[in-house]
TrEMBL record:
A GO BP annotation: transmembrane transport
Annotated membrane topology: Multi-pass membrane protein
Organism: Paenibacillus riograndensis
Superkingdom of origin organism: Bacteria
Keyword Lipoprotein set for record: no
Transmembrane segments: 28-47, 95-114, 126-149, 178-199, 230-250, 282-307
Main location: membrane
Sorted UniProt keywords: Cell membrane, Membrane, Transmembrane, Transmembrane helix, Transport
UniProt cross-references to InterPro entries, sorted A to Z: MetI-like (IPR000515), MetI-like_sf (IPR035906), UgpAE/MalFG_permease (IPR050809)
Name of the molecule in the record: ABC transporter permease
Record carries keyword Cell cycle: no
Subcellular location per the Swiss-Prot or TrEMBL entry: Cell membrane
Amino acid sequence: MQNTIKANAGSTVPRSSGSLLNFVKKHYFLYLMLAPALILTLIFKYGPMYGAIIAFKDFSPIKGILGSEWVGLYNFNKFLSSPNFEVIFMNTLKLSFFGLILSFPVPILLALMLNQVRKSAIKKNIQLFLYAPNFISVVVVVGMLFIFLSPTGPINQLLTWATGEPVMFMSRPEYFRWIYILSDIWTSAGWASIIYVAALANVDPELHNAANLDGANLLQRIRHIDLPTIRPIMAIVFILAAGGIMSIGFEKAYLMQTATNLPTSEIIPTYVYKIGLQSGDYAYSAAVGLFNSLINVVLLITVNFIVKKLNEGDGLY
């Protein structure tokens, strides 16, 4: 008797190699549709992984990757023992951690508030206003920050009128993280709320009507109806965000850097760019980037394990 397993679509996929080949032949058109995405993934995602071995070599462009001398963990030890390691690592961790903690709840709150708007026209206008910042270029966003927060900008004009002196927001290290995180929330929170709005749209209105008849107020309905609906999505989004906690966007941090705010604005991605592309030390920069990726993988596995324990087994995998 042929052994089979159930596929997600409801069909049966054979276990034996011969039956599997027949199954592929029968559904060949579906595999042809999958082929372009699979080929692109192999070429652009897995193919470049070959170049990661330069992190373990004294790489020379003349000798090439295979011809360069193998140095093992030398480049990793060089980074871990460098005087800049602690500052750069902590800057990256703090910026990512505080960004995650402050930005994660905002899309959820926006979605819950949008779900209470009953008039479709008003709701669409609000959504358009919230989603629009996501389509503004990072370069434009940083340019706006420099304009509005400059010593002669509108915000400093108000502060000068109130206190008598301007505040050098873009030059002071202590303001960098707040400006980065708050501007990031402004540009991304509305767009990130789409997935929660879509999930809340599937909530049966009869549940809210029944809760109203039972005397439940708005907060009680949100707590017992809306939040349980989006809880699995919240878990997945949080795991993915925590897994990429060290993967801060390079462009925005680099554009916001000034000579005076480097003590807090120098992070691993900007350091890799400067060491690798500007200084030409490709092996060392590859080692730093690989070190960053390994931390992300460890965080992803750890956070997923913790969330599954706290969320009744619901996690990323």
